[in-house]
Amino acid sequence: MHRHLHSRGTGAAIMSTAMNFGSKSFQPRPPDKGSFPLDHFGECKSFKEKFMKCLRDNRFENALCRNESKDYLECRMQRQLMAQEPLEKLGFGDLLHGKPEAETNS
Amino acid sequence: MGGLWRPEWRRAAFCGWRWSHPESPNWVAEKVEPCLRVGRSGPGSTESGLRWLGTWRRPNPARYLVLQPPRRRKGTNPFTRAQEEDWRRRNKTVLTYVAAAAVGMLGASYAAVPLYRLYCQTTGLGGSAVAGHASDQIENMVPVKDRIIKVTFNADVHASLQWNFRPQQTEIYVVPGETALAFYKAKNPTDKPVIGISTYNVVPFEAGQYFNKIQCFCFEEQRLNPQEEVDMPVFFYIDPEFAEDPRMVNVDLITLSYTFFEAKEGQKLPVPGYN
């Protein structure tokens, strides 16, 4: 009995790693823009701390902390830790357009 | 009864079942007789076949009063010889063309693999059939604000890798079409530099195809110096089409799981995708 259960468990493990043509398996895809270089010197650590604090304050809702994430990515781009890209291409177009409006209002 | 018995059926190689008039006294013989011998002609063979079968009955001689031209060997008829030569030549030409086409198809199927790889490299599609996938789509995508998805994070480390690897937030609430940033932290507590390489997994599997990473830290070697601690960001979004997929109606939780392995010096691991 125990041996049968054990073999079923290992069989399932083998199934998940081996090529099984019956069911689809997860295909990891490479990231669109490649890999972030590591921030060995912590140059953008303060921006990251601001972002994490914002998340904790807003119950981890991403929509409310997008300005902080934009600032973090800008920091990375300035320090050569990320390829320079216009922010619209990273999905922050609405933040950029919203900014001049806020400035004229206030 | 006699009308069902056709002389040309004797010459046919086809031995199919055919319905004869069941009241005919010869109906068994008539059914079986075409199968007994093929190609021969003439009235005498019928009788010998039937005699072999053991159901010999003299068939109706009136059958053989139908006139037929005497048989000659193929190609001996002088009137049609030129035409037959012409047919034979055309048959050979057609056969040559068909064989050439078959060989051409086989060659094309072998050539398709490097050609497609070349095409992918020049157009940068990278094996995915979706054209213009990355930046144009991100620029133009509209967040689906009414569909909130919770993304939880999981961090694993292979047993031989001594890093402390953990996510910096347990979960984050995103909507499809909105780019999001998340952080992991890794520390190397040993006294030697260690190189790690990671892969990821997304659960549920079907939602994984909508989970797009713009930039992360996976699939490339990451080197941590002794006692060094770094923040590892993941910049991702969930495809807006997620909201329109009927299979994803009940999916509210997506788990992103990263696993770090130790990479040996100089080891070149295959990156998923087409390079």
Automatic annotation (TrEMBL), chain A:
Cellular localization per UniProt: Cytoplasm
Alphabetized Pfam families for the sequence: CHCH (PF06747)
InterPro entries: CHCH (IPR010625), COX19 (IPR051383), Cys_alpha_HP_mot_SF (IPR009069)
Signal sequence extent: none
Domain CHCH: 44-78
Superkingdom of source: Eukaryota
PROSITE patterns associated with the record: CHCH
Gene Ontology CC: one annotated term: mitochondrial intermembrane space
Main location: cytoplasm
GO biological process: mitochondrial respiratory chain complex IV assembly
Keywords: Cytoplasm, Disulfide bond
Family affiliation: Belongs to the COX19 family.
Name of the molecule in the record: Cytochrome c oxidase assembly protein COX19
Species in which this protein is naturally found: Suricata suricatta (Meerkat)
From TrEMBL, chain B:
Assembly mode: Interacts with CNNM4/ACDP4. Interacts with RANBP2.
Signal peptide interval: none
Principal localisation: mitochondrion
Subcellular compartments: Mitochondrion inner membrane
Gene of this entry: LOC115281809
NCBIfam families: PRK05089.1
Membrane topology per record: Single-pass membrane protein
InterPro entries assigned to the protein according to its UniProt record, in alphabetical order: CtaG/Cox11_dom_sf, Cyt_c_oxidase_assmbl_CtaG
Function summary: Exerts its effect at some terminal stage of cytochrome c oxidase synthesis, probably by being involved in the insertion of the copper B into subunit I.
Any Pfam family hit: CtaG_Cox11
GO cellular component: mitochondrial inner membrane
Entry's transmembrane regions: 94-113
Protein's name in the database: Cytochrome c oxidase assembly protein COX11, mitochondrial
GO terms for MF: copper ion binding
Keyword presence, Transmembrane: yes
Keywords: Membrane, Transmembrane, Transmembrane helix
